[in-house]
Description:
Blueprint: H1 6-9, E1 24-25, H2 37-45, H3 48-51, H4 58-68, E2 75-78, H5 80-92, E3 98-103, H6 107-115, E4 119-124, H7 133-140, E5 145-151, H8 163-172, E6 177-181, H9 185-188, E7 202-207, E8 220-223, H10 226-234, H11 243-254, H12 256-280, E9 284-285, E10 291-295, H13 300-309, E11 312-313, E12 315-316, E13 326-330, H14 334-350, H15 353-356
Parallel strand pairs: 1-11, 3-4, 3-5, 5-6, 6-7
Antiparallel strand pairs: 2-8, 7-8, 9-10, 10-13, 12-13
Helix pairs in contact: 2-11, 4-11, 5-6, 7-8
Amino acid sequence: MLEARPAVSKLKQYQPPLGDRSGLRLDFNENTGGCSPRVMECLRQLQPEQLACYPERLPVEGKVASFFGLQADQVLLTNGVDEAIHLVCETYLEPEDDAVIVVPTFAMYQICAAATGAQVISIPAEEDFSFPMSRLLVHATSPKTRLIAIANPNNPTGAAASVDDLLLIARSAPQAAVLVDEAYFEFHGESLLEHAGPIPNLFIARTFSKAYGMAGFRIGMLAGAAGQVQSLRRACSPYNVNGVALACLPAALADQEYVRQYVAEVRSSRSRLQGEFAALGVPFWPSQANFVLARIGARHADFVRGMKARGILVRDRSSDRGCEGCVRITAGWQAHTDRLLTELHETLKEIGWAERTPA
């Protein structure tokens, strides 16, 4: 009887709680208002014959590379960052290799690495979720380590490692592909993108799902040294990114005013949400991303249900390592934050938090 490879059979399936997502969606770190009006205009102008053609990725890669100050052969567009992670794992990992990640973090690093048969080594973040530099550096220098995957800023904690620490890790592990996932770069402002090329084992992933509001298009980017990106292309389908996404991405990049405005709104909303948690005595972790992780405690599930009953979706992250009783809430447009804070107070009162908070 046909059976999946043992490495695949042992995988824990990633199942996001999609289901009924009606309401204000503050659970998946999406843009809470949508994409740029220029993207919508581009969609309206698409012709039927364009949709009948196989998508051409290379011309758009050239435009994206130019926008980011890179050469065209340094950029590979992918079907979201999920595919970028998959391609790096498929290109560089063998079953006898080690893949190193810092936990808690985005689940797809472990899933994609483990699917190759490689051994996944999980390094716990520090108690305050800060970057475990010294412990990670020990594994970085091991000849068995062939992949180091780091989300920066990290999801679900919002913590960020310094550029200097990440560069040291990449330079200390020339035998390993060092993937720095900058999905939340716009809300943080620090990047290693200029080093993708000069450091030949460094890869930078970016997404257009968050600040650009294009999660439904499924488009991301991998940047690295030209020779390494060429290796990734060998493992990649020539038509991996759909034609609608490729047609609309240049329009999204052209509207940087929209991106700047949204990022400013998110940063303000993030500060307001953190300030409200501080005032209420709810433990939280300062975030460099477009969300805040807070420890609600034993009644975290009741809190999530209560918020949903009020038309607001938030994400229960209590199953992640070190995140017991924690909930992650997306920061978006200010108008959405106004509503969030009102319902947050009511839901916390409902689950009894207000009664435990000192005056």
